[in-house]
Structure formats: structure tokens, C-alpha cells
Design goal:
Bound molecules: zinc ion
Radius of gyration: 13 Å
CATH class: Mainly Beta
Structural class: mainly beta
Oligomer: single chain
Low-confidence stretches: none
Largest sheet: 3 strands, mixed
Order of helices and strands: EEEEE
Mean pLDDT: 86
Distance between the termini: 45 Å
Number of helices: 0
Number of strands: 5
Number of domains: 1
CATH superfamily: q5lls5 like domains
């Protein structure tokens, strides 16, 4: 079993294809801003959103 990887992204919408020969058809994942991360259901990669200061959705 391959160890799962974590990727930091700067967008709530990420495209994942698993990467390389062991990949999967490209899927688009939407990160819930309240959760801040999402796990790809195909390859179990974890995408953690890292928004720049001021971009984070917050209550006013
Ligand atoms: Zn994936």
C-alpha cells in the first residue's frame, strides 16, 4: 500500500487525477471552507486549502 499524500492548495476547487501511471480519471473536488480539506475518493490524497490572508471566508 502506498502512503497517502497531502497537498496544499490555494483554491477551494481542485482537480485530482491521482498523478502519473497510478492515477485515475480527473475529478474535480470542492473543499468545504468550514472543513478546510478534502480527501480524494479515488486515490485518498488529502488536499488542504491554504488560503492567503484576507481570502479566507469568514463571517463579518
Ligand atoms: Zn485523486
Amino acid at each position: 500500500m502506498k502512503s497517502f499524500e497531502t497537498f496544499q492548495v490555494q483554491s477551494l476547487d481542485v482537480a485530482c487525477d491521482g498523478g502519473g501511471a497510478l492515477g485515475h480519471p480527473k475529478v474535480y473536488l470542492h473543499i468545504d471552507p468550514d472543513q478546510g480539506s478534502i480527501v480524494c475518493p479515488y486515490c485518498s490524497r488529502t488536499y488542504v486549502v491554504k488560503l492567503l490572508a484576507g481570502q479566507k471566508k469568514s463571517a463579518h
